[in-house]
Structures are given as C-alpha cells and as structure tokens.
Design brief:
Elements (H helix, E strand, L loop, with lengths): L1 H11 L6 H29 L14 H27 L12 H28 L9 H32 L18 H23 L33 H4 L2 H5 L4 E6 L2 E6 H6 L3 E8 L5 E10 H7 L8 E5 L8 E4 L1 H5 L4 E6 L2 E2 L9 E3 L12 E6 L1
Parallel strand pairs: 1-10
Antiparallel strand pairs: 1-2, 3-4, 4-7, 5-6, 5-10, 7-8, 7-9
Helix pairs in contact: 2-3, 2-5, 3-4, 3-6, 4-5
The structure holds ligand MTE and molybdenum atom.
C-alpha cells in the first residue's frame, strides 16, 4: 500500500507543487478569509447585537463598504481555496494516513477546514443569488461555520508553523522542513512554472473581483458582468429585494385609510400620509446595502424618525421597535438602537429619487437609516413604538 501511494504521490508531483507555493497561496487565502471573517462578524453583530456592540452611523456607507468587502473577499477565496487544494492534494495520498497522535489531529483539523471552507464559500455564493436550496437557516449556519473554519485554521497554522517559518527564512534557505517533490527542484524551471501558476491564480481572483464588485461599489459598475445584481435596475432605479406581492402587503399598503401608529408608553398617535407630508421633510443620499451583497445609493426624502419620537413625547435616547404591514416573515419587526434614532439622517421615507415611494420600495412609508444592513431598512410601515 505504501509503495502504491508513494508511486501515486510521485505521479502527481509537479515542479509547480511545493511548500513554497502552498505557503504563498496560504498567505493569500488566510488574508482573504481573515478580512471576510471580520466583516462577517460586523454584519452578524449589527443583525444580532451583543450588549457591547457599537453602532457606527457614519460614514453612512460603512455597511456598504464592509458587506461589499465581505462578499468580494468571499468570492476571491474560491479560486484561492481551489488552487491551494490543488497544491497539496498529493499529500493526501501519503501512507499511512495517521502516523502519530499529532499527525492524526493535524489531518482531522485539515479535513474539517477543507470541508467547512468549501461548504461556506459555495453556500455564500449561492446566497448572493437569493437562492436558499437548503433546510437550515443560512445566517446562523454561515456564522457557526465561520468559527469552525477559523478554529481549524488556527490549529492548522500552529501545526504548520515550522514549514511557514522555514519558508520565511528564505532566501537564506535552509533545507525545507518537510521536503516535498517540488521543493528539491533546483532548476529555475520550477520557480517559473510556480510563478506562472501564482500569476494565473492571482489573475483569476482579480478578474472575479473586478467583474462582480460592481454590485456593491458604483466605481466597478461598468465592469459588472457576473454579479447577480446591477446598479440602477428596478423601479425608481433601485433594485428590489422582496416584492410587495411576495410580502403579501399590497392591499394594506394601498389602503387609502392607511395610518402610521407612533406609540410611547400610554400615548399613541396616528399619522395619515397627508399628516406625515405636512411635517418638515428632509432629504439624504443613503445606500441600501443588502446582506446578499448588492448596494445602491439613492435620494430619500421624508420625516426624521426623531421628530416622530418627539411628537409623542418620547425621550431623545429612545430605542424603537418598528413593525411592518407584512403579516409574517423575518423582517416584519425590527429594533432600532438609539444611535440610529438620534442620527438626523434616519428617515421615515415617503419619497425615493424625487418621486413618491414605489409600492415595491415600501409605499406608503419605509425606514432608511445610515450604516445599517438592508434587512433592517423596513418597508411598508405599520407602527413605530418607543421601547
Ligand atoms: N417589511 C419588509 N421590509 C424589508 C424587507 C422585507 O422583506 N420586508 N426586505 C429588506 C431587505 S433584505 C432589503 S435589502 C431592503 C431592500 O429594499 P428595496 O427592496 O427597496 O431595495 O428592504 C428591506 N426591507
Ligand atoms: Mo437584503
């Protein structure tokens, strides 16, 4: 068996494969995973706030930036991960599969890392297409997988530290700690094919980023050919995530006697659309930044949320619960921390890009706040309560 697997390993050996290549790819992948992890934690925190969470409202595009980077680094990780797997897979054929306790642990951590990373990047990619072909809740699973990946990665890096350090000590270049087929390649040829391979992987990741980042960042819009969303599409030039029909709100939202309830302790005021329009109106350029990766900045106009809170005698540091007309669904209610209530740019928007809000964008009234994930920009408002 050992002979056979050694022969197989030799069969797959290529001057391109070497610990140097694996280390370089590992560095790129590690960096991209780290950035993706940090931005993912930020996004998760905003949606599931821990008690110590800080809620930045400025710049207003902070979440657009963070989520754009999250989706972009996630996409870039796909070719990096595949290339890294290609660079090491002959190692998987080595016999015996477990040589010692440490070796066994190392392999288990690698298996866990590979499986969870592949699952993470593919489900993440599918998610940007708003497709949920699985029975588990996406966000929670995505979140816990991220911790599994990070934990197994830390373990993996700890075990591989000698190889990584040996690679860093180059070009003084002592003998590689765990020599592999490509490592002993003395000729320049090995180095060149390795460089060409790295250039190919880097180009693939770069092109993938450039042709999809336009869904999050307007600068890259002209190059956006592969992303599932395009800027400027949809009613009033803004994409729609969930339609009024899907949310089953059409009749209630179009009802002529619609009123917004604003409540504080015992007192409650009902505002008709005409009354809301007669209050001071403010306009702001703010982005909708969807957790699924797309963003779009638009001009919103309407009533400041803090003016509505003041109108019912609510405190300046109010925390709100906002409820949609939507009869059911995860986005029916939304809690708004005081940082957003106090920010003067947080609006109950009645207009979008100079027109009365389209039904698909939340007519008669919706929330728009700076720096928040799209899922919290509640459409088709029913009530605002001071908690
Ligand atoms: N009531 C309600 N509000 C909602 C949603 C929803 O499903 N129901 N979707 C949210 C999501 S996920 C996003 S990204 C934004 C998108 O706003 P838009 O459809 O006007 O572009 O609305 C948010 N507001
Ligand atoms: Mo969204």
């Amino acid at each position: 068996m050992e002979k056979l697997t050694d022969a197989l390993a030799a069969r797959f050996a290529s001057p391109t494969r070497s610990s140097r290549l694996t280390v370089v790819l590992g560095r790129w992948l590690g960096l991209s995973f780290l950035v993706c992890f940090a931005t993912g934690l930020f996004s998760h925190g905003l949606q599931n706030p821990p008690s110590w969470m800080f809620f930045p409202t400025s710049p207003a595009w902070i979440y657009q930036l963070s989520q754009g980077i999250h989706v972009t680094t996630g996409l870039a990780s796909i070719p990096l991960l595949l290339a890294k797997l290609w660079s090491v897979y002959p190692e998987l054929l080595k016999w015996p599969p477990v040589r010692s306790l440490l070796h066994g642990l190392e392999r288990a951590s690698v298996a866990l890392f590979v499986a969870s990373s592949l699952l993470q990047v593919t489900t993440g990619l599918i998610n940007t297409y708003k497709w949920y072909p699985w029975p588990f809740p996406f966000r929670e699973t995505h979140y816990w997988l991220a911790w599994v990946i990070t934990g197994s990665l830390v373990l993996h890096i700890a075990v591989k530290l000698p190889v990584i350090l040996a690679n860093w000590r180059r070009p003084g270049r002592g003998p590689a700690v765990t020599a592999r087929a490509g490592d002993s390649e003395p000729a320049a040829a090995g180095r060149w094919t390795r460089r060409a391979f790295l250039a190919g992987v880097g180009t693939t990741a770069g092109v993938l980023v450039l042709t999809t980042a336009g869904q999050s960042f307007a600068w890259f819009d002209p190059l956006n050919v592969f992303a599932p969303r395009k800027m400027g599409t949809g009613p009033q030039s803004v994409p729609v995530n969930r339609t009024a029909e899907q949310a089953n709100v059409k009749d209630q939202a179009m009802a002529p006697d619609w009123k917004l309830a604003v409540a504080y302790q015992g007192s409650r005021r009902m505002f008709s659309l005409a009354e809301l329009r007669s209050l001071p109106q403010y306009a702001h350029e703010l982005p909708i930044a969807c957790v699924e990766g797309w963003s779009q900045t638009a001009q919103w106009r309407g009533v400041r949320i803090r003016d509505l809170v003041a109108a019912v005698g609510g405190p300046a540091d109010a925390v709100l619960r906002v409820t949609s007309l939507e009869p059911e669904g995860a986005y029916r209610t939304m809690d708004m921390p005081t940082a957003y209530v106090q920010d003067e740019r947080t609006l109950v928007a009645l207009e979008l890009n100079g027109e009365i809000l389209d039904l698909e964008h939340g007519y008669p009234a919706r929330i728009i706040a700076p720096g928040r994930p799209g899922v919290l920009q509640t459409k088709w408002l029913q009530s605002v309560e001071v908690l």
